[in-house]
Amino acid sequence: MKNAFYQVEMGDFFVSSGMLNHLNILHGGVLLKHCDSTVGVLANRYSQSRVLTVAIKNFNFACPAHVGDHIWFRVTLLKTGHHSMTFAVSIFSQGFEDSTATKIGEGLMVFVAVSEKLRPVLVKPYVVTDAEQQTKLNELMSKFDV
Fold it and tell me: Which GO terms describe its biological process (predicted)?
């Protein structure tokens, strides 16, 4: 896979009233659920197998989101192990009348590729050949202490 999964924006949704917490902002658990599903799709595409979330690390909520806000995820594959894939995810929000997006959260997620019997399967190595992309990956890996 030559850089095909370096970084993608995917998994967008609009905040609805049923997603709010008692403070009338997007519930963190709802956001994390959408994030987990979105990153899981990319992990599945990369590994061509079933995947399970094994770790959610360094997840930070920076700003609230409100009803009507458009939420999307920027997902970056940082590295692979024998059975695992480590992703950085940035979460963005844009209000209906806003022209710019705001980063509302970020985190690190680790998935493992598994068989139908939920046994680990091998993941092909992720090799970045583009120097600019490698620099960006190194910055993210340093930020998340990967």
Answer: acyl-CoA metabolic process
Whole-model pTM? Answer: 0.91
Q: What are phi and psi of 16, to 5 degrees?
A: -115, 170
Task: Give a yes or no: residue 1 inside a domain.
Answer: no
- Residue 111 located in a structural domain: yes
CA-CA distance, 89 to 106, in Å (whole number)? 5
At 21-30, the pLDDT tens digits run 999 999 999 9
Whether the CB-CB separation of 118 and 52 falls below 8 Å is answered with yes
* Mean pLDDT of the region 129-141: 88
Q: What is the CATH number of the domain that holds 98?
A: 3.10.129.10
Tell me: the pLDDT tens digits for 84-96?
999 999 999 998 7
3-class SS string, 12-74: EEECCHHHECCCCCECHHHHHHHHHHHHHHHHHHHHCCEEEEEEEEEEEECCCCCCCCEEEEE
**Which residue has tokens 């139908």?**
116
How many independent structural domains does the chain possess?
1
Whether 3 maps to a domain, the answer reads: no
72 beta partners = 92
